[in-house]
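Help!! Second protein's tokens look totally different from the first
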Amino acid sequence: MGQKIKDARNIKKVENDKEYTQEKVSEKVGLSTDQYRNIENGRSIGSVQVLIDICNLLDITPNDLFYEILESKEEILDKKLYSEFQDLTLKEKELVKTLMIHIKKNR
């Protein structure tokens, strides 16, 4: 067996967005619900063809499936922080900047 999917939150979110159930996805890609659930939860991995079928059905890339394997936790956190920071007001950004300076000084 190869690498396992570390985190299926993206898959579950896409399923919910598309109003797909595990049963519907598993049926469309030719798996039992238990087999699909095991892939989705990272307990096993399907064949390359099954993974491609899941990606095509959910309109996602293999990188979406394996993003935690492909990127370090720090890179993921940096991207999430940057994304959240983008949505802040100027005043909130200044507050975050002040907090970061304070944290660095007190290490």
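Here's the second one for comparison:
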Amino acid sequence: MVKKILNEPESDRLEASSIRALPVPSAASDSPTPKSFEHAMAELEQLVGQMEAGSLPLEASVTAYQRGAELVRFCNAQLERVDQQVKILEGGVLKPMLPGNHTTEGSE
């Protein structure tokens, strides 16, 4: 597509002054904070599915991308918070979980 655009006569090209920037929706202020990590992941999966299907118009795709980025930040913050809690519970040392060892101490 880039080659096609570059090979077009200059008279067929759009001038920079005729191109308007898309309005940037304020996704952060309009979208509610997810109730939980699980809700955020479910919404993110739904957005990704819609975007991959190509069923969204351009403006909706931009809004969905922005909401997705917001959800990813929320999920990362939640994971960081839980990671810090685990480190505190384990005395500052994060112990690796061994495959097949899903029981907690004293539960056997």
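Reply: Different proteins will give different token patterns, so don't panic. The radius of gyration is 23 Å.
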